Amino acid sequence: MRLDFYLSHVTDLARKAAKIAASKGRVTVNGVVVKKANYTVQEGDQICLDDVLLAWPSEGYYLLHKPAGYVCATQDPDHPTVLDLLPSHLGQDLKIVGRLDKDTTGLLLLTTDGQWLHRITSPRNACNKRYRMMLADPISDADLKRLEDGVMLNGESQPTLPAVAQRISDCDIYLTIQEGKYHQVKRMLAAVGNKVEELHRDQIGPLSLDADMQAGEFRELTEEEVAYF
Ligand code: URA
């Protein structure tokens, strides 16, 4: 990558200021002053600005308890976004791992690591997501079975993939799905003639939302949790 791009990524300097810093001889690569902003930086190069060794920031992995009312987008003209819940210095390069609707609460992952994000969201990896929901009407065992076997969603040509449905009470169920189609859970319940009134995600793969975490709180994932995916 170009030297000015590298500098603008790992320091507070904007691209233009990075070019000027280099042209003034403030930057060394492996101990040699490099004044050209288009110099190609290689992996393993020791790059210093004003004799301070720079390091490419390591990837960030975060778990957020999403509250209702926040949209999963980097910007929105009308609503607060989930990135508003994290300190702005973390938010810059963070990508949202899958989307939850504005009114959905629960476990949301954010990361700077595009490959990790892809491993979780790629349909090929069939990563399970568990949702708990309150329904408008009591649901029958037959309809739970239909949800498990696969239902045809409006506008789709294939039924949903096998899922796991567990009853908690008449109108309160868990549904674990391996896909992530647009509004999938709400559309699945609509397909069996019901309506989701409240939706909360509490698991993604082997990762669960912390029981003591309040809506709006976030934390960094441990190395072990990052390695789940
Ligand atoms: N399915 C939905 O319908 N909404 C969500 O937010 C997540 C899954």
What assembly state would you assign to the polypeptide chains in this entry?
A: single chain
Q: State the helicity in percent bands.
A: 10-25%
Sequence of secondary-structure elements: HHEEEEEHEEHEHEEHEEEH
Q: How many helices?
A: 7
Shape: elongated
Please tell me the total number of domains: 3
Q: CATH H-level name of the largest domain... which superfamily?
A: Pseudouridine synthase I, catalytic domain, N-terminal subdomain
Instruction: Please indicate the percent range of residues in DSSP E strands (runs of 2 or more).
Output: 25-35%
> Which architecture name of the largest domain does CATH use?
2-Layer Sandwich
What summary fits the major beta sheet? 9 strands, mixed
Could you say which small molecules are bound to this protein? uracil
Low-confidence stretches: none
Q: Which fold name corresponds to the CATH topology of the largest domain? A: Alpha-Beta Plaits
- The gyration radius over C-alpha positions equals 23 Å
| First-residue to last-residue Cα separation | 28 Å
Would you report the number of β strands? Answer: 13
Protein model, in words:
The model has no long low-confidence stretch (mean pLDDT 95). It is elongated, with a radius of gyration of 23 Å. It has seven helices and 13 strands. A hairpin with a 2-residue loop joins strand 3 and strand 4. The chain has 229 residues and is an alpha+beta fold. Strands 5, 6, 7, 8, 9, 10, 11, 12 and 13 form a nine-stranded mixed beta sheet that branches. Strands 2-1-3-4 form a four-stranded antiparallel beta sheet. It has three domains: 51 residues, Structural Genomics Hypothetical 15.5 Kd Protein In mrcA-pckA Intergenic Region, Chain A (Roll); 82 residues, Alpha-Beta Plaits; 77 residues, Alpha-Beta Plaits (2-Layer Sandwich), CATH 3.30.70.1560. The longest helix has 9 residues. Helix 1 crosses helix 2. Bound molecules: uracil. Uracil binds next to helix 6.
